[in-house]
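Thread: quick sanity check before group meeting

JM: Hey all, I'm pulling together slides for Thursday and realized we never actually wrote out the predicted structure for the chain we discussed last week. Dropping the sequence here so it's in one place. If anyone has concerns about the input, flag it before I start.
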Amino acid sequence: MSQIIDQATRRDFLKQTTGIVAGLAVGSAFQDALALPQTQPLYSLPLGVYAGYNKATFLKESGCTYIEESVAGFLIPPDGDAQYEKNLQQLRQDHFPIKSYVILLPGSLKTLGPDANHEAILQRTELVLKRAKECDSQYVVFGSGGSRVIPEGFDRAIAKAQHIELTKKMAPLAEKYGVTIAVEPLNRGETNFINSLAEGVEIVDAVKSPRIKLLCDIYHMLKEDESPSEIVKYGKHIVHCHIAEKESRTPPGLKGDDFRPYLSALKKINYKGGLSIECFVYTDFEKEAKRGIEVLKQQLSEV
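JM (edit): ok, ran it. Output follows.
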């Protein structure tokens, strides 16, 4: 009998110790897994290039997810309504989206100063927003530096009030068509009004519309020596971004600019919107635009 009890006891002991050892092994493996560095997904953004829509197929094949056009090039072309209808037909045929349009206003239409022409600007803006909606686009960029230059000797406070008054009148139109107007700060080489994200936010805050937001242009920030920390500070207002190299507004990869501090700031605010290369002169568009996209993808993956 004593031998039977000893055997039973031995079996129980072995079961218990085996369970403890297994538990320790599992627990150790779990702790080791926790100790391993967690792999974070690489940061990426929808990338686009400002170009004529005839470049759409090339840009799609080069890794872009959209194209950025101009108001005068696509929505209100020099050849009139018939050309716009052709543009729209091409867009619907190619199925490559136009996310945004730049240059809302020509320099001849003034938002402020003694020659301010708000009535004409509002008529143009409504047509632009109506057509942007027809094109399923998201944004119209309100940079237009030539239209918002404060004339020498003109009261700055009055000029600012004029510009805000106009933007407040634009807001209901943007809400009506469901297209956001993105206020774009520009460097002082292009205009003397709204030259920083902070100044852009002053306009956005004064208007108080869900359809009047902020555009962050890293090229203009570089020209103004504006810190990447400003992106973090005003991130909640930013809906769209532009980028180009500082010296000559070339695409990324030509001069070798390091954009990672600014891209890190975008990552920090969990920015998910578009990032467009916005350049106006190329030596070799296809080569330089494609290289620009590759460089942006690489730098985004490193932040």
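AS: nice. Strands lie at 47-50, 66-70, 98-102, 139-142, 180-183, 212-217, 238-243, 275-277. Confidence is low (pLDDT under 50) at residues 1-11, 20-30.
JM: adding both to the slides.
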